[in-house]
Each structure stands twice: as structure tokens, then as C-alpha cells.
User: Fold Isochorismatase family protein from Clostridium senegalense.
Amino acid sequence: MKALIVVDMQKHILSQKNFKEEKEKIREIINICKAKGDKIIFTKHVEKSDESPFNPNCDRGNIHEEFIDYCDELVIKTTPSAFFKTNLEEILKANNINEVIIVGFNTEFCCMFTAIAAFDRGYKVTFIEDATGTVNSSETYDMEDLDIKDLVGSVLNWSGQIEVLYLNEFLELENIK
Assistant:
């Protein structure tokens, strides 16, 4: 069985820049997975600081209203990994999940950490590179011309342990044209 893990589709993150393309791709993948009966698991990052937009009492930390109805399960997390001190693995085991697909935000933190943690726990992992996004840029890392999604996708792919695909490759594998 498969599960789609949709990482941190939260209002605050999605308000940081135009993520129209990423949102469309994520929605398409959600619809495909739903139609196949795969479990759709969303994560929500929370922080205790009263000033944080990810404070549990702040609406900006909630899952964006465009996506909340797709959620079968919601995992609350406090670190970049959706597995660390959460109930995600319990949900996966209870549903006989042995394969996860990762999409969402931020590519170089929560998506990457969750993909690696899933692999470390024995799951087959597929990372849909162009269905992830980040609020950061090459300026954030002081690295001219850095393509964050491409770098993370390349590193995960080169590991030989995590399957990294673009949406069109995912559609081909799912026999969707």
C-alpha cells in the first residue's frame, strides 16, 4: 500500500510567494492518489513561540483551505522530520503502508528530512521534485544561481535509495497520460 505525504501546506508558507505551479501539481498528485485509494497524510509544523506564525493558536499555521478537505490524516510535527516524535509511523503501520510519496514544502528542510527518515525506516520513497517548493532562494544561502529543488532532488537521486521523479515521470509510471 502507498501513502502520499503532503508536507506543510500551511497558509503562512503558501503566502510567501507565488506557488501556483507547485499547488497545481500537488493537487493533481493528490487526486491521482485518492482515486487509487492511497492514504493522504498531511503534516502541519507547529512551534511554541507566541510570535511564530506556526503557533498552534495562529490561523496562519493551519493547512491552507484549498487543501484541507483532501486530508485523511493530519500529523503534527515540531521538527523538519514528519517522523520525529510524531504518530506518522503508527499511521503508516496501521494502514499497511510500505511506500510513501513526498510532496509539499519546504523542499530542502521538511520534504528532504521526511524522505530520508522514511527511507531509514524501511519505506520505499518517491520524491516528486517539481511538486515541492521552498520559500527560500539562492540569496538565502548566498549561493548564486542555486536551484534548491534541483539540488535536493539530485542529492536524493544520487543516493540511489530514494526515487526522485518529476510529475510527468510520475504520471507515466501511474499510466496516466
